[in-house]
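Sequence in, structure out. Go.
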Amino acid sequence: MGPLRLYTPSRRLTRLDGMTQELVSLTIIMAVAAVSPIVAQLIPGRFIPQTVLLLAAGAALGPYGLGVIEVNDAVKLLNELGMAFLFLLAGYEIDPKRLAGHQGKVGLLTWGITLGLAWLVVTFLPFFTKQGINGIATVIALTTTALGTLMPILKERSLEGTPIGDAIISYGTWGELGPILAMAILLSTRTGWQTMLVLGAFLAICLLCAMLPTKALKTGHRLYRFLTENANTSSQTLMRLTTFLLIFLVTISALFELDAVLGAFAAGFILRYIIPDGSKSLEMKLEGIGYGFLIPVFFVVSGAAINVRAVAGRPALLVAFIVMLMLIRAVPVYVALSLDKRENPLSSHHRVTVALYCTTALPIIVAVTSLAVKVGTMQSDTASTLVAAGAITVFLMPLLGSITYQVADVHPVTAVREIAHTPSDWRTIVREHAQVRALLHHQDRLKRMAEMLESLEKQEGLNGLDSRRAELVERARLEIDRQLKELGLDPQLTTQLPHNYRYPKN
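Output:
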């Protein structure tokens, strides 16, 4: 009894200290998460995504920086859940019809070409051989697109649902799905037939998870009615079931010695299959938990894993990796868009925009380098450099994509010509160009809203509120048409992304 009394308080104190440290680290992480949107809003032009701020803060406050964030077991678990939620939402955004469609098939072919190019470069380029990173992990890292990271950026910039946004999702889907499958097959420590057997078993479990709810939905099963009726009560049945599906498939991935990313992505894909038309209520709840709590933890902890000194010691590798990402990922996407005129034709500026956005790469790089370090095929310093390069692309590629997008809309060359023709009118010319850009942007948004309301009317009829919205949309469209006519533009000939408009006066 005596020794027990002496041991128990000491043990309790140690445990309390550990828990206190975990809570302190989590408090700092959540403080960063709370402040980052405010800082991003205050930056002129809002050209730095929140994700970049989270990564930078993690690197500054983590073990390799000030050391105030300790990446302990509790934080690691939340980090894994954050990554799981990120890929769940990424998988949920993918429409299976898009994958099977024409542009989806072109996207798959394009990704296969990037994989081949990456293997050739990493295998035969002397630079990478000298760096000691001629492994398959680097090949996979060079073919990735961070679709989960891109989705909030596309929403922030009103690109979702536009031809550009659709193209980014079509090509970006395979830039995320392809590397996930490649990781499971090529980075496995098993033999070939063992790997295929494990993946087959995992696929069977996923199909079972997808088919049972779908069958219950079609038959109107009592359990399904219970779940839907209690979806928005304190029971939150659909949310609990979705969370269970996510954690179940992530756990299965761990038991099969597959990466958790595969399980999380499969969960999102299954959820979209079960609910093909989506559920606004469920989406808001998932995004609330994901973007409100867990996903910021993932990005901060990912930033904390970056050894800034190691990155600074290998600047050539950092620059080379970013350049290779652009050449191996961006160039094939641009060429594919240029050759494919069958669907979603885009101007040259916007093909560049899509290609740049598709070169945004981080979460998969984090996953693939972590796995490579774990199995001993990559040094931690090299992994830090590649993760830092991925973090830079999250900032750089959307920024460059935004610039090319605006260049196409504003037409600075045309504006410069007009100013050169009549220098005294430069203020008016700049104002008119900005006005045209704004009008065309609103014109496109109204068009999409009108199409949505029209589709809703065909399906189930409009209620009083929707009828009022339809009326307001039509009045707004007429007003924009009037303003476009005043500027010398034909509203019927203008689109969201004009690449040939000119002012009549010049």
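Check: The chain has a mean pLDDT of 80. The two ends are 97 Å apart (CA to CA).
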